[in-house]
Amino acid sequence: MTIAARYVEFGTRETRGVSPAYERLALAVSRDDELLSLIGTLPPAKQQPNLLFGVVRLLGGPVEDPAAFHDYAVANWPTIAAQVRTRATQTNEAGRCALLLPVLTALPQPLALLEVGASAGLCLYPDRYAYRYGDHLLGTGEPVLDCAVTGVTPPTRLPEVVWRAGLDLNPLDVTDPADLAWLDATIWPEHAHRRARLRSAAAVAAAGPPLLRRGDLVDDLAALAAQAPSGATLVVFHTSVLYQVPAPRRQAFADLVRGLPGHWIANEAPEVLPYDGLPEQPSEAFHNVLALDGRPLAWTRGHGQSMVWFG
Hints:
The protein is an alpha/beta fold. It has helices at about 5-15, 20-30, 35-40, 50-60, 65-75, 75-85, 95-105, 175-185, 190-205, 220-225, 245-260, and strands at about 110-115, 130-135, 135-140, 145, 150, 160-170, 210-215, 235-240, 265-270, 290, 295-300, 305-310. It is globular and about 55 Å long.
């Protein structure tokens, strides 16, 4: 896929109807030969729109007006490129816990959670957030995670979590203002509700920090999984992570995680983690598939807004 096509896809598939500013900006960049040439100097894994836009937001640059973005990016490209090369789109969206909850509550309790690509570990607290599935409210306190559910009965209880750990190439610390600023920068411009949710989830994590390890999802997963307490069900999970991993490493990871004791929950795009015989997408907004132990269960939206279960 060309860089221009990548930006068109981001604008038309991921941000349309969700972030007008990023839709407008992505489509403008896809037609901007000067910016496309600059982006082409970055490693392929670092050319993604969300990463570039997040870095410009972090640096205080404009993302609402494409012409202003062009001028800022061209004038500040060395600084932008340096940041892009050292960062990853670690969008630590706690809202995705609403997608995981129906699966987690159906597993044998208690649970030992191990998140791959954990970022700051905000998705390791599904037992400490509150949820609203339509009219059904579960749990108390903040944040309250809203999710529209079709095809499955919403959970009636929270999971029991006795151990929580995360693995990431660059784990973030929510008590570090610089790390929290980067997490904030990866949230799309109009999404004030997600910024508020980030602050609430960060407060939950800061009150009882998870075990976060710097490491590779293949080389270091087994050793971390071995630290899970006996008597708890090990659950290895990840949400919108594998697109950043080269295809051969994805396969090596899948082979490894299938051999671990416990369960594996994946929430990834089907072109990244393919499945046979998927039903048709409810709409283009549903571009991830929730799966348990390699069995696809539901179409989901990227930030946990809604899910449609199969059959």
